[in-house]
Specification:
globular, 52% helix, Methyltransferase, Methionine Synthase (B12-binding Domains), Chain A, domain 1, 5-stranded parallel beta sheet, Rossmann fold, 307 residues
Length: 307
């Protein structure tokens, strides 16, 4: 995807300063830039984001976007100011757009310009999909639009994954599945990409997977974690039963179970069972980091070998 390149005048308008000030920032190395063969200073949006965060400078101006850039000036400003409500609204419009590339371009733009993965998932995709569901409930869009938006989102996330910075590969593995009749898998996809970005080996089974198929995968792969999705409240009873079967297998393999989704609650698991429930991508990322820290302590204790 084409990167957003700004001129000295663009940056000056953005921060309501003179071009001389912007040139001084660049020449001092405070604001990264590169020069054209003609000697003109050019700035990448991602470096402006870094500069804005480091120096606590809020953008107060607007950009003049030329050359047919698909990302509007308003959206670029929303990225810089972290206006996630505006970004979620843009996600809704692009996911409902007939274009097959609009949504991918938008999500890639967010990631390239230092919107974290968990922020994209929690603060843009999740509220955007809720809004689409509410529009369908109100009769403002058809079921065809809702299904197409879901498909476009899954496809855009999959394509965006090729741009994500991946930590060095680790020995840890995770199996991800939506059990039984659970068919909403956007949240599960997001979880998979978070694990992958953190260097885990991911085994994605997808939606509507029987519990016995997950159990077979646990025996075959012996993952450190099995991650389950629970977003449909009308399937909770079946999920509780499937979960009871999984727990016995996970216990023998020392596999940890984690459940996420709108319908995930601590009451899903039998009392006393060690099942982690997360309500957001940020909580999942905290779980991943905690898991790494615990394993690091085990490695030190055991003289360098993971237990």
């Amino acid at each position: 995807m084409k990167r957003t390149i700004l001129s000295t005048a663009d940056v000056a308008r953005m921060f309501s300063v003179t071009e001389t000030t912007v040139k001084r920032w660049a020449d001092e190395g405070t604001l990264r830039c590169h020069r054209t063969p003609g000697g003109h200073r050019k700035f990448e949006m991602r470096h402006i984001v870094e500069f804005s965060e480091k120096n606590n400078f809020d953008p107060v101006g607007t950009l003049e976007v030329v050359g047919g850039d698909r990302i509007s000036a308003a959206m670029q400003l929303a990225v810089l100011s972290r206006d996630f409500q505006a970004l979620a609204r843009e996600f809704v419009e692009r996911s409902l757009s007939p274009s097959r590339t609009d949504l991918y371009s938008f999500l890639s733009f967010l990631y390239e310009h230092k919107i974290h993965l968990w922020e994209i998932f929690d603060l843009v995709v999740a509220p955007g999909m809720r809004e689409i569901g509410e529009r369908w409930s109100r009769g403002e869009i058809g079921i065809n639009h809702e299904h197409r938006a879901s498909y476009e989102t899954v496809e855009a996330l999959a394509k965006m994954q090729s741009r994500i910075s991946i930590r060095p590969a680790e020995r840890r593995a995770v199996v991800l599945a939506a059990l039984g009749e659970e068919q909403h898998e956007i949240g599960l996809r997001c979880a998979s990409y978070l694990f992958e970005a953190e260097g885990w080996r991911t085994h994605y089974l997808g939606a509507r997977i029987p519990a016995q198929a997950v159990i077979a995968s646990l025996h075959e792969l012996v993952p450190a974690v099995v991650c389950l999705s629970a977003s449909q409240a009308d399937h909770l009873q079946a999920l509780r039963q499937a979960l009871a079967d999984l727990i016995a297998t996970a216990r023998t393999l020392h596999t940890q179970i984690i459940i996420g989704g709108r319908a995930a609650t601590p009451g899903l698991a039998p009392e006393g069972e060690d099942v982690t429930v997360v309500s957001s991508s940020r909580e999942l990322l905290e779980f991943i980091h905690h898991h790494r820290a615990v394993d690091s302590e085990k490695t030190i204790t055991n003289g360098g070998a993971l237990s």
